[in-house]
Amino acid sequence: MQTILPAQAQVIIIGGGIIGCSAAYHLTQLGWTDVLLLERQQLTSGTTWHAAGLVPQLRATHNMTVLAKYTGELYRRLETETGQSTGFRQNGSLIVATTEARLTELKRSASMGRYFGIDVETLSPAEAGKLWPLLNTRDVVGGIYVPTDGQANPADTTQALAKGARMRGARIVEQVEVTAIHTRCGRVTGVSTTRGDVQAEYVVNCAGMWAHAVGRMCGVHVPLHAAEHFYIVTDEMAGISLELPTLRDPDGYTYYKPESGRLLVGAFEPVAKPWGMQGIPDDFCFGQLPEDWEHFEPVMEKALHRLPSLEHTGIQLFFNGPESFTPDDRYLLGEAPNLKNFFVAAGFNSVGIQSAGGAGMVLAEWIVNGLPPHGHL
């Protein structure tokens, strides 16, 4: 039986990934209960479901570090608050450097983290190797360790945020597509959907890969594009346990996430592979893209160098799924400059899980108070 949509809502959120659900959660936390989230397929079905689920706290800027730290704090308490499992655990993270320039960058990041109360340790190559025994440290010049970093199950965390929003009155409706956005005199007024029209005081574009297309419905440019994004999951490996921290090697473009005896090896390859140049297919839902070993091979070579034991380990899964990226590697958050009360939260450059809590909090406070929260943006 289809849910009948209300004729109006104070806030309409377009998109049921972790960003949209976080926005709904935080709006209801601030007392705005007349919130309607519309998802064209199912919650998490765009890119959230296949995310690696890393929740590090150190970012390139003051603001992004503050928001990432808040995200970790939120995920730590969310399961207790909602009763919905999130899979969050604090296994820490180790970041290694193979150049002095990278090590200097990591030390600066560590200093900023300490300023905000994040526990960060600076490590020698030997100390990094002791923390991660399978790590090849021959060309490592140092690293940093953040014991309070963690990881979460993306789908479960999204459901927990959705449950928290519902508990305070938000309505979340799946299998309904927004087909038009209505405006009057430079202000958003509502949407048309496959189940009828809904008037609204605010509309929030959390449509992920579809955010550009949604913005075009009302003349708002959302500069992002989907690109293929890769990781592998190995067979069981000796020496891999859930107690190991997440390992990141930015000079080698790779990260390594322990998963119950197996290892997820992901990458931010230096040359991206755009996807959906003619638009994202309407029926794309929990979708996976074809394998491309030729594209992944240069990254895999770096992974084999960093963890030589991978050479003798089988691969259980090669995953290729799209993520949305922005031109400057900064996510898009805030009110559209040319349309009053139309907000955007999209383009998270494959770090949506670690960004969702902070982004949802900022967005909600911006909408409720009319200004971004001081000290966050």
Automatic annotation (TrEMBL):
InterPro entries: FAD-dep_OxRdtase (IPR006076), FAD/NAD-bd_sf (IPR036188)
UniProt domain FAD dependent oxidoreductase: residue ranges: 11-366
Gene3D superfamilies the UniProt entry points to: D-Amino Acid Oxidase, subunit A, domain 2, FAD/NAD(P)-binding domain
Pfam families tied to this protein: DAO
Positions of transmembrane segments: none
Signal sequence extent: none
GO cellular component, one term: cytoplasm
Protein name per Swiss-Prot or TrEMBL: FAD dependent oxidoreductase domain-containing protein
Organism: Candidatus Entotheonella gemina
